[in-house]
Amino acid sequence: MAWNEPGGGKDPWGGNRGDQGPPDIDEALKKLKEKLTMFGGKGGGGIGKPGGSIKGLLPAALLGLVLVWGLMGFYQVDEKENAVVLRLGEYSETIEASGLKWNPRLIDKVFIVGVTEERQYSTRGLMLTQDENIVEVALSVQYNISGAKDFILSIKDPEITLQQATDSALRHTVGSTGLDGVISSERLQVADGTTEKLQDLLDLYSSGINIVKINIEDARPPNEVKAAYDDVIEAREDLERLVNEAQAYSNGIIPEARGEAQRLREEAQGYLSQVVSKSSGEASRFSALLKEYQKAPGVTRERLYIDAIEQVMTDSTKVLMDTEGGNNMLYLPLDKLVQQGSAGPSRNNENNNQLIDRVANEVIEKLQRNSNQLQSERRR
Q1: 60-89 pLDDT per residue, tens
Q2: What does the pLDDT look like over 121-172, one tens digit per residue?
């Protein structure tokens, strides 16, 4: 029968549960005191002698405290961390080697700092540019810890110091740059200038913080003037587009004009050479002709006359011939005869060629007779 059933046996607390009454509290406390007495001194202490019980517990308690104190002094340093140790409130050492370390608790105070991981801080604010315009700038700062000792001991709150120094460096850099540069054209220079200025401030404070990079995430005018500034940007883009178009036209037309000028210079140089050469040839020919004229003036004059007539007749397409002993003149349309000869069959071509040869011979004979008559008259 179970002890908790009606009429059951003895319960584990030492009482008889047959009457279903509550357990005897006094008896339970008595048994607990007897067990504590077992840790007391030899024969000297008991329940009735509290001093002996306390003296027996003191060494065990001290041993437990020592064990707990010793265990609390162990800590782990990772490869990406450094540990700064203060002994009795004064700097003792910086532990850079990784592994399990131990320092006496309550005597040494250990600060573990991650030195290789990159941290990030972001900020946004309104500030004044060099040309007295207001601009809203948002940036993010990436940094790490270069000196664990300085980071822990040199300044009270490194994170707040970093925020205040970033705001100061950014305002200094933006205040030295125009609105257009901050928003568009010189954003990279603003980030670099802010990085340099911020690092100088942190080094001055001996903060142990190294700035890796600053990114200008956003830069824009305030919302109240954004519409007007968008119009200015659009007008500036139109101006740049027109300038580019004009430059492209200039790049196309100037080489073409230079090529045309070069061509005209070369043509003029060629004409000059041609005229000089022709003049030199004419002068040489005239000198040679003068020598021949001095040898035989009459023959030379006759030859010059025939050459002149021949040149004139070569350029003429119509010939009028005066027949001897009559009032009629013979008209020879040489151009029409040539056209008919080129358009007609080969037989007509032969007839036309014969006619042309006959007419040419008659013309030459007549010119020779006229020349002979002129010479006869001159001799008389």
Answers
A1: 788 888 888 888 888 888 888 899 999 898
A2: 898 888 888 888 888 899 999 999 998 999 999 888 888 999 999 999 999 9
Residue 321 pairs with which residues in a beta bridge? 330
Question: CB burial class (10 A; 0-12, 13-18, 19+) of residue 114?
Answer: middle
Count of residues in the chain: 380
Q: Which CATH architecture has domain 120-221?
A: 2-Layer Sandwich (3.30)
Residues near 123 by beta carbon (within 8 Å), at least 6 away in sequence: 138, 139, 141, 163, 166, 167, 170
How many C-beta atoms surround the C-beta of residue 261 within 10 A? 10
Task: Say whether pTM exceeds 0.90.
Answer: no
CB atoms within 10 A of CB 314: 7
Return residue ranges of the chain for CATH 3.30.479.30.
120-221
Residue 73: Cβ-neighbour burial (10 angstroms; 0-12, 13-18, 19+): middle
